[in-house]
Design goal:
The protein is mainly alpha-helical. The protein has one domain. The chain has three helices and no strands. Helix 2 crosses helix 3.
Length: 81
C-alpha cells in the first residue's frame, strides 16, 4: 500500500475510532489519529502476539490503536465536550 492508500486507511480508521469512542473531529484529525493508531495498535497487539495482515487487518489494528489513543488522551487531558 502506498502513501495515498495509507492516508486513506488512516482517515477511515480515525473516523471509525472517533465514532466508536464518541469523539468528533475533522479529516486531518482523523488521518493523524488513524496513522498514530496504526503504530500504537501494531505495538500493543504485537506485544501480545496478534498482527493484522492485508487492508482489513491493518484497518482493524489501526482502529484499535486509535481507540487506545483516544482513551489515553481522555485519561491524561480530560474529555473535551
Amino acid at each position: 500500500m502506498g502513501i495515498i492508500g495509507g492516508i486513506i486507511l488512516g482517515a477511515i480508521a480515525g473516523w471509525l475510532a472517533g465514532s466508536i469512542m464518541d469523539e468528533s473531529g475533522g479529516v486531518l484529525r482523523n488521518i493523524i489519529l488513524g496513522i498514530v493508531g496504526g503504530f500504537v495498535g501494531s505495538f500493543v497487539l504485537g506485544f501480545i502476539g496478534i498482527s493484522g495482515h492485508g487492508i482489513v487487518g491493518s484497518l482493524i489494528v489501526s482502529v484499535i490503536g486509535a481507540c487506545i489513543v483516544i482513551w489515553l488522551g481522555r485519561l491524561l487531558f480530560g474529555r473535551k465536550n
